[in-house]
């Protein structure tokens, strides 16, 4: 078995999850007839405290549909320079929605400075796009946005009449790290997404949560962007299984990341962002070393996206024992080159 540390998207559905998928009751979800999709959406409502939820194939589409539902053509959203829904979604909001992004530089902790957000809000003037939305990401690069910041951002957007969207691909990692229920985070935004296909271990699927009225609009955009699925309960069953069984255990991934950080530091690896809060670790190394490390590890059954800045993720298919093996190999690698 390979030890794959490239991402938490590489997680494999377990035998129990596959059984749940095989046994799911299904119907045509475009007609609203799929009982398992409906159960998953209801569970997201229960956990988040939002009025409604929508199941989508991917996190990218969930963010796109959210942006399309918040902003009209010629309007804009304020977003972090490194945010997934600005930088890593192929410019979808601009291409498909004629929505202008207004990126701003984030603080080192991943928060967007609210004074800079305020300065980026356009006055009501025919020269400018209309600023509609602030979009934050939680977790961002494995960092958890502080609760006080979420409260401030929520208050700020109320005062400035902006909507607040959270790209919460890994929001359960944030909730588990803070030891709070999802509701505590969800109360400080209008809408947010959840990826089921990362550390939660489902093969596919994301959720978009918000008000009843917002989700109705989002449902039309989901159809238009080709995300209306039919007997999708087969997929939703994996999501339901993940929400029931794989949320609490994220703490193991976080503990493993902390442990790995300590072990790698002890053998002389340069930790780029010390103090792992969730399941993401960044390491720094010379380009020469990085170029050798990737293939060397691969030959020994470990997959790492080795680069000058290496991102490592822990997840449910990586045990402490696996990580011990990685540390031992890494030590051997460094010793050979010393
Ligand atoms: C992975 C990710 C997404 C997109 O999810 P996909 O399902 O891969 O499309 C969106 N936002 C963040 C922060 C992510 O990490």
TrEMBL record:
EC number(s)?
4.1.2.48
Q: What is the annotated signal peptide range for this record?
A: none
Its needed co-factors are: pyridoxal 5'-phosphate
Q: Which UniProt keywords apply?
A: Lyase, Pyridoxal phosphate
Q: What Gene3D superfamilies is this protein classified in?
A: Aspartate Aminotransferase, domain 1 (3.90.1150.10), Type I PLP-dependent aspartate aminotransferase-like (Major domain) (3.40.640.10)
- Which domain of life, per UniProt? Bacteria
What Pfam families does the entry give? Beta_elim_lyase
Write one Gene Ontology MF term: lyase activity
Q: Which residues form the Aromatic amino acid beta-eliminating lyase/threonine aldolase domain?
A: 4-284
Q: Does the keyword Protein biosynthesis apply?
A: no
Keyword set includes Iron: no
- Subunit comment for this entry? Homotetramer.
- Fetch the NCBIfam families from UniProt: GntG_guanitoxin, PRK10534.1
Which family does the entry's similarity section mention?
Belongs to the threonine aldolase family.
Q: What is this protein called?
A: Low-specificity L-threonine aldolase
Biological source species = Serratia silvae
Name of encoding gene: ltaE
């Amino acid at each position: 078995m390979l030890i794959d540390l490239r991402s938490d998207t590489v997680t494999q559905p377990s035998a129990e999850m596959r059984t749940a998928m095989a046994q799911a009751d299904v119907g045509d979800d475009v007609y609203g007839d799929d009982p398992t999709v409906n159960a998953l959406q209801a569970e997201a409502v229960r956990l988040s405290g939002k009025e409604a939820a929508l199941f989508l194939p991917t996190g990218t589409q969930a963010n796109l549909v959210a942006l399309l539902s918040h902003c009209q053509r010629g309007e804009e959203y304020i977003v972090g320079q490194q945010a997934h829904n600005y930088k890593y979604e192929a410019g979808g909001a601009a291409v498909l929605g004629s929505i202008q992004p207004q990126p701003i530089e984030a603080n080192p902790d991943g928060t967007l400075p609210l004074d800079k957000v305020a300065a980026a809000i356009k006055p009501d003037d025919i020269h400018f796009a209309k600023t509609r939305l602030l979009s934050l990401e939680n977790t961002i690069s494995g960092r958890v946005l502080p609760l006080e910041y979420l409260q401030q951002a929520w208050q700020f957007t109320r005062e400035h009449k902006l909507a607040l969207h959270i790209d919460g691909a890994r929001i359960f990692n944030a909730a588990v790290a803070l030891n709070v229920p999802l509701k505590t985070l969800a109360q400080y935004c209008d809408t947010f997404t959840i990826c089921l296909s990362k550390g939660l271990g489902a093969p596919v699927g994301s959720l978009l949560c918000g008000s009843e009225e917002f989700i109705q609009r989002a449902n039309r955009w989901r159809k238009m962007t080709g995300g209306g699925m039919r007997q999708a309960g087969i997929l939703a069953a994996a999501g339901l299984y993940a929400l029931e069984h794989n949320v609490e255990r994220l703490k193991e991934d976080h503990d493993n990341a902390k442990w790995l950080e300590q072990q790698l530091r002890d053998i002389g690896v340069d930790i780029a962002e010390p103090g792992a809060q969730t399941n993401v670790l960044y390491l720094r190394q010379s380009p020469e070393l990085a170029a050798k490390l990737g293939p060397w590890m691969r030959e020994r059954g470990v997959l790492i996206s080795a680069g000058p800045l290496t991102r490592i993720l822990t997840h449910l298919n990586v045990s402490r024992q696996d990580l011990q093996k990685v540390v031992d190999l890494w030590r051997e690698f460094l010793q050979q080159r010393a």
